[in-house]
Amino acid sequence: MTMQRETEHTALTAVCYVRAPLLLEPVDTQVETLQACESDGAIDELLLRSWPKEVALSEESPHQEVLANYERFVRWADERGVTVRPPFRERSTTSQVTGETRERLVTPLLCLELYADDELVGVFPHSTETTDETYTTDEAIATLRTGEIPTPLGSVGDAEPLELPPSATCPDCSGILVDGQGLFGCSDCGWIGTVTEYGRFATQPEPAPKDRKRSGTDSQETDSSPAKPSRK
Q1: Which ranges are annotated Polar residues under compositional bias (predicted)?
Q2: H helix or E strand, kind and range, residue 160
Q3: Which of 11, 22, 170, 191 is the most exposed place for a label (fewest CB within 10 A)?
Q4: How far does CA 165 lie from the centroid of its chain?
């Protein structure tokens, strides 16, 4: 399960997400192997990122970057007909004091995403729900060590249509939402928003004043492809 670089100038970037202790003291074999891949030129750039063991699945979470990464991984997996759940896991916690239930996202110990130039070409580990086959990070890193690019499981044609959330009620007033081709609106309070990749409603940001004044002929197309994480 490998693929060759399309041209000699294709830049291969590996972004490795690990739990904080591993990043502070990178003695893990997988991280060391990735560093060796960068030193030997098997990959052009290695970016190490840390994340906590779990984060709150809410707009108030201080870890919005982790949630954005998760949405990007899920979107990539959905397009190929594979899944990243596991290694990611969502769970509910209930406070014994207030009785409030909150949704939380549990992150994997290590996750790897690969970019050929600016195109996301792989997230590891991932698996297929039909055959339970898993492409592990160990396998992906071993392939990188040989100078080749791992070929993910599935394909773009294997993706299944996304289902709408079972409860289409307004997050502000609990009114009934109307689906306008992916953009939801509430006739009671005027709320407008979309659905995230993990099934939560998100408020649609209001356009800037200059954007509201633009006519349809003045608008410009923008690139909707996921942005590659930058070096920090």
Answers
A1: 217-232
A2: none
A3: 11
A4: 19
